[in-house]
Design brief:
Largest sheet: 5 strands, mixed
Helix content: 10-25%
Strand order of the largest sheet: 3-4-2-1-5
Family: Belongs to the SUI1 family.
GO molecular function: mRNA binding; translation initiation factor activity
Keywords: Initiation factor, Protein biosynthesis, Translation regulation
InterPro entries: DENR/SUI1_TIF, SUI1, SUI1_arc_bac, SUI1_dom_sf
Protein name: SUI1 family translation initiation factor
Radius of gyration: 20 Å
CATH topology of one domain: Translation Initiation Factor Eif1
Oligomer: single chain
CATH class of one domain: Alpha Beta
């Protein structure tokens, strides 16, 4: 059974205001997502075929940054490899076993990449 909402704190920090001069920055927690530079990133290149009907994929894990930057990086990798894929749950999934090529591309872009698994 769901917990009953008791007060404004339980609504997730919403601030309701009818003031036209309202400045939202006064009430934020300062949780700005500081993006790391590529050399500060510790990425892992995985190879997998589990749960995909026997199809092989290359998975890049460990990216820390905004979702927009992750999507842009995934798009660039898919384009350079000439294959499809997706970006979800903080991971970049590239169709096929392109681990060596992806690692070479990421190192050229300045990322620290580690090969994980066989």
């Amino acid at each position: 059974m769901a917990k009953k909402k008791l007060g404004l704190e339980d609504l997730g920090g919403f601030v309701f205001s009818t003031n036209d001069d309202f400045d939202e920055s006064e009430y934020t927690d300062g949780e700005s997502q500081n993006d790391l530079t590529p050399k500060d990133q510790q990425l892992e290149a995985h190879f997998s075929n589990k749960g995909r009907g026997g199809k092989t994929v290359t998975i890049i894990k460990g990216y820390e940054g905004s979702d927009e930057d992750l999507i842009a990086l995934g798009k660039m990798l898919k384009k350079k490899c000439g294959v499809g894929g997706s970006t979800k749950d903080g991971e970049i999934i590239i169709q096929g076993d392109h681990r060596e090529k992806v690692m070479k591309i990421l190192k050229k872009e300045g990322y620290n990449v580690k090969r994980v698994g066989g």
